[in-house]
Amino acid sequence: MKFIVYKTIVEASKKAAEIILKTIKVKHGQCNLGLATGSSPVLTYQYLVDDYRKNSTSWADVRTFNLDEYAGLDSSNHASYHYFMNQHLFSKLDINLQHTYFPSADDNYDEKIAKIGGIDLQLLGVGVNGHIGFNEPGSSFNSLTRVVDLTPSTIAVNAAKFFNNQIDRVPKRAYSMGIKSIMAAKKIVLLAFGKTKTAAIQKLKFCQSYNSDFPVSALSLHSDVTVILDQEANGNGNDL
Ligand code: GLP
Predict the structure, then answer these.
(1) Cβ proximity of 191 and 12 under 8 Å
(2) How far is the CA of 68 from the centre of ligand 1 (A)?
(3) 3-state secondary structure 86-104
């Protein structure tokens, strides 16, 4: 795992957007991106939109596969990840909405991804308890896309961030790519910002094997992972 630390989220997000754009260019626009929601990728998406406006990088042949989605929220619900992606990225690019996929109850997501050649780059955030996607502690290393129960701590964190603190509005279940689905990506970029992530990042730095109590530890076994941090998430270490 390569760790890169920036002073601010702005610089860190610019770097993440650069890596994504490079992947699109190398594949001549025909690439498959695994995308994340949450607060961590918001600025990265803004830089991708800026690039589209300035440089007209085409997303017409890009396919996107979102990591997760709440069960029971449809795409018109403002808290759904469909809505988030449309608002922050898809509606601002020339992407074909038919090529934007989300896990759901009614298809074999992993097979669909494999059939189109796998994910070239997977963008990830991390939960304070070390979850990736909605793979909560206890997730198997061999897990594929499935319906999962959210932990009380994740429900509480997401209620505060995205549901106006109304904990009863947060769905208790979600569809999520599994650890095995994520590990199948050719390249992984993990974003972590702010001091709520410091403990998880410190722990990740010492991981050498998979510990199901700390799902992000799986990344220590992947050959191409870049972890992009701001100083706070790094525990105020040296910036590069
Ligand atoms: C959420 C999402 C994840 C996200 C993570 C971190 O629960 N299911 O996909 O990466 O937690 O979120 P944030 O970036 O808001 O800190």
Answers:
(1) yes
(2) 10
(3) HHHCHHHCCCCHHHEECCC
* Structure tokens given for 196: 């709520």
CA of 165 to the centre of ligand 1 (A): 16
| Number of C-beta neighbours around residue 120 at 10 A | 20
pLDDT tens digit at each of 240 positions of the chain: 999 999 999 999 999 999 999 999 999 999 999 999 999 999 999 999 999 999 999 999 999 999 999 999 989 999 999 999 999 999 999 999 999 999 998 789 999 999 999 999 999 999 999 999 999 999 999 999 999 999 999 999 999 988 999 999 999 999 999 999 999 999 999 999 999 999 999 999 999 999 999 999 999 999 999 999 999 999 985 444
Residue in 80, 134, 154 to alter for ligand 1 test, most ligand atoms within 8 A of Cβ: 134
For residue 156, what is the enclosing H or E element?
A: helix 152-162
Q: For this structure, is 158 an active site residue?
A: no
